[in-house]
Request: fold
Amino acid sequence: MELLSVVVPCYNEEEMIRIFYDALVKVLNTMDMNHEIIFVNDGSKDKTLEEMLSLYEEHKDTVKVIDFSRNFGKESAFLAGLRASKGDYVVVMDVDLQDPPEFIPKMFETMHKNGDDIVGSRRVTRKGEPAIRSFFARNFYKVINKMSEVQIVDGARDFRLMKRQVVDAILQLNEYERFSKGMFVWVGFKAEYLEYENIERAAGETKWSFWKLFRYALDGIIEYTNIPLRFPALLGGLLTCIMIVELIVLLVLSLLGKPVGITTLILSLILFLGGVIILAIGIVGEYLAKTYSEVKGRPHYIIKKYYE
Ligand code: UDP
Ligand code: MG
Reply:
C-alpha cells in the first residue's frame, strides 16, 4: 500500500494537538492508504511536546515527533518534516484545523482525476481576519507578482498535497531563508488549487504578529525578485542623465553670453555628483543581485521525467 506523510509544524499548540490528531486520523482511516504523521515541535514554551509524546507513545507506528531546540519558524519546521517524510505523497498542514482534514481525500481525488503533481488550497474569503491584515496580504500578492518571475496565487495556504517527486525537488532548494509559497511555484510541476472559505482557528491564537508577517512578506519579495537591488541603478541613472542635460544647457547659456548664477552651477554639480554616486551604488547592487542568486545555489532546473 502507498504511504501518505502528513507534516505538521506546531508552536505553542498544546490545546490543539489532540483535537487535530483525532480529526485527522478520522479522515485518514477512511482512505485506502498507510499514513505517518510527523509533528514538528518548533520550540514551544507550553506543553506541546508532552502532548505530542503522549500521542507518540500510543501510536508508535504512525506518529513521529521532531523536537527543535528553539523556535526556528514555520519554514524550518516544514523543512525538517519534509526531510523526515518517507511517503509517496506528502501533505503539509497547520495544526489549528484552519486546514480542514476532510480536504485531503478531495485533494487526492483532484490529483488523480487531473494528473496533478501538487494540489494546494486557497481561501477565497478572509472573514474573521483583521481588515488591516487582509489589506496588506492582498497588496503583497499584487506587488510580488508584478516584480517576480514566479506567480504566487492570492490567498494560497501552506496546506498542500504533493507527490514524492515534488518534495524531492523542494528539498533540492538549498537557500537558507526559505519562503515556501515561492518555492512551490518555483519548482514548477502541474499544480491546482482547491478553494475554500476561511475557517477560524479552533483554539489558541495566531502565532503571527503583524510585524512577523510583514517581515515574512519582505523576505518573500527579497527572495524572489531583484528589483529592490536594481532600484538605485535606475534612480541614479535617471538623475545623472537629467543633470548632464542641465549642465549642457548651462554651458550653452554661458557660451551665448547669458549670465549663469554660481548657485545654479554649484547645485547642478552637486546633483550631478549625487546621481553618479547613486548610480555607482546601483552597479554594486547589480553585482550583489548576481552574487545573491549564486549564493542561494538553487538548481538550474528540475526534470519532471527523463525519457530514454
Ligand atoms: N508555527 C510554527 N512556528 C512558528 C509559528 C507558527 O510551527 O514560529 C505553526 C503553528 O503552530 C501552526 C502553523 O504554523 O500550526 C500556522 O500558524 P498560525 O495558525 O499561527 O498562522 P495563521 O493561520 O494565523 O496564518
Ligand atoms: Mg492558523
Summary: The radius of gyration is 26 Å.
